[in-house]
Recover the amino acids of this structure.
């Protein structure tokens, strides 16, 4: 097991992911429109997306995630009032990841917040699959290079979340206070949705 260094682009926010092995999380690519919209909120957001608008993420347990410096620069947005909590740094607009709510124990950690010295393949293992590929930017829907979502990938993701919930890996979750509210007021991008 190893610790993985986490950092925003400017270095004001730094942290670590504890006790990482290639089997301690799920590395996947999400093609949902919301993940794409979140990435596109940032100046270099297109760099976070693959050719079909997919966003790579590593699903990790909240109890292993730490911020050691710069917590005052951690910010949150939601695409809609009831949408997922999507975290980033206010100092340099580095996307951190998605944390739906404290009762769903996972952080969809984005590579943009993982220090560049870490090789994603060696650290977290291979991409296990894709989710929501039906929402990819492949307008024809028939590109043979677009990986298709599978029920097996969704089952693995759901199974990991369930295991973390049962064994208590949902706490501590530094993104929420004791009442379950986000530690900072989320910026709501679309109040009407």
């Amino acid at each position: 097991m190893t610790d993985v260094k986490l950092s925003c682009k400017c270095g004001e926010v730094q942290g670590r992911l504890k006790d990482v092995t290639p089997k301690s999380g799920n590395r996947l690519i999400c093609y949902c429109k919301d993940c794409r919209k979140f990435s596109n909120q940032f100046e270099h957001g297109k760099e976070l997306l693959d050719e079909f608008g997919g966003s790579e993420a590593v699903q990790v347990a909240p109890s292993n995630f730490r911020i050691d410096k710069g917590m005052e620069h951690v910010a949150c947005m939601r695409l809609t009032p009831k949408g997922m909590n999507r975290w980033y740094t206010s100092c340099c607009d580095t996307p951190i990841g998605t944390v739906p709510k404290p009762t769903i124990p996972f952080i969809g950690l984005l590579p943009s917040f993982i220090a560049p010295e870490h090789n994603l393949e060696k650290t977290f293992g291979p991409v296990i699959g894709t989710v929501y590929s039906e929402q990819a930017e492949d307008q024809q829907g028939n590109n043979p290079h677009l990986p298709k979502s599978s029920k097996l990938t969704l089952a693995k993701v759901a199974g990991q979340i369930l295991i973390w919930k049962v064994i208590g890996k949902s706490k501590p979750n530094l993104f929420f206070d004791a009442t379950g509210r986000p530690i900072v007021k989320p910026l709501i991008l679309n109040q009407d949705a």
Q: What stands out?
A: The mean pLDDT is 90. The domain at 2-188 is CATH 2.170.150.70 (Metal Binding Protein, Guanine Nucleotide Exchange Factor; Chain A). The helical segments are 33-39, 120-124, 151-166. The CA atoms of residues 77 and 187 lie 4 Å apart.
